[in-house]
Amino acid sequence: MVVPGCSAPGLWVRGFGQCLGSLFTLFSKPLCSAAAAASQPLDAQRLAERLRAQKQQQKTKEPAPTNPVQRRVRELVRFTEQLQRVHPNVLAKALSRGIVHQDKELVVINKPYGLPVHGGPGVKLCISDVLPVLAKILHGPKAKPLHLCHRLDKETTGVMVLAWEKEVAHQVQELFRTRQVTKKYWAITVRVPVPEAGVVDIPIVEKEAQGQQHHHKMTLSPSYCMDDGKMVRVRSSRNAQLAVTQYQVLSSSLSAALLELQPITGIKHQLRVHMSFGLDCPILGDHKYSDWNRLAPQKLSAGILKKLGLQQSKARHLPLHLHACQLTLPALQPQKEELTLLCRPPRYFVNSLRRLGLKMPSRDHSADEEAAQPGAQ
């Protein structure tokens, strides 16, 4: 760190090595009397911030991975970190470039990966924070804020509906609550479910994970179990919620599959729980529900790791491969038709399909470069 001044003995400052992982030596040029009077002392907080900035610059100078998959994973990690640091205006502009549908009542966006819908502990920026800015970008400086109609998990990508008026938002929310909205998701799963099409009808309940105090997960609460080869009805938890998921395999290989999922109910993390604990086919990149007893990165087979070009130590960076691809809304007004909204998967999803030998359905077949909407990563 160079502090302007004239000629006098140099000052060596050493510190913060243990906090930042390396030892830095800061040189400051001598201070003359006039400059010293005008300058402010460099306190510990400012010094630490500048050291962090220097360390970050060193990271950016590290050679990029030669493997294209590892390079893409690194880009995605950097992208999700940037989403929490960008200015709300920048994020709103990115969302406006990924608009799927817009009319006098609704705005439909392609939600990017890693972006929370609502605020919470540790969340610096979310979609609800930028709705006023997004509205002004679309309708001018006097536009009223847009309203959320439903939510998607932070790690889920795809169709997300916003409304211009609060009354319309309430109307769409009621359609979701009464299960009049048809939702379809694509998911890449580890292993292939048997049978290849069916319905998972198992209640779900939230419980504290074994050996992990204060950490809760959603899990199955079946109404029946096997006892000495016989199916016996068991007493369900009073907190269990009805959860029904329809699924169908669209494409498969020896170790993975592309599934179309249609949740009939809307329970928290329903698709992830039913795939992992109901069908024993966890969604690729689901580090929370791949193992009930552990909170650790998803354990992948050697075959999948080889196809993806990844090492197990880097599997923690794999994003969740769950995409809201289609949503059908009933007519909001008389003499209007139902609205079907389609949303292409992000680029990382398409790349994983290709590497795992899975095929996109023909109705959404497109070139890899066109597979991601602008702003989606």
CATH superfamily of the domain at 183-330: Pseudouridine synthase
Provide the CATH topology of the domain at 183-330: Pseudouridine synthase
Helix content: 25-40%
Number of helices: 10
- Major sheet characteristics: 10 strands, mixed
Provide the gyration radius in Å.
25 Å
Main structural class: alpha+beta
Task: Please trace the helix and strand order, writing H or E for each element.
Answer: EHEHHHHEEHEEHEEEEEEEEHHEEH
Distance between the termini: 37 Å
Q: Roughly what is the average pLDDT, rounded to an integer?
A: 81
Number of strand elements: 16
CATH architecture field of the domain at 183-330 = 2-Layer Sandwich
> Which regions have little confidence, pLDDT < 50, spanning 5+ residues?
1-39, 364-377
- Give the CA-based shape: globular
What is the level 1 CATH name of the domain at 183-330? Alpha Beta
Q: Strand portion, in percent?
A: 15-25%
Give structural notes.
This protein has helices spanning 17-20, 33-38, 44-60, 68-83, 88-97, 127-139, 166-177, 270-278, 302-308, 347-355, and strands at residues 11-15, 24-28, 99-102, 106-111, 147-148, 157-163, 182-190, 197-201, 204-208, 216-220, 224-227, 230-233, 244-252, 256-263, 322-329, 339-342. The protein is α+β, with helices and mostly antiparallel strands. Strand 13 and strand 14 (256-263) form a beta hairpin. Among the domains are: 67-178, Pseudouridine synthase (2-Layer Sandwich); 183-330, Pseudouridine synthase (2-Layer Sandwich), CATH 3.30.2350. Mean pLDDT is 81; it is low at 1-39 and 364-377. The protein contains ten helices and 16 strands. It is 27% helix and 24% strand. Strands 3, 4, 5, 6, 7, 8, 13, 14, 15 and 16 form a ten-stranded mixed β-sheet that branches. The two termini are 37 Å apart.
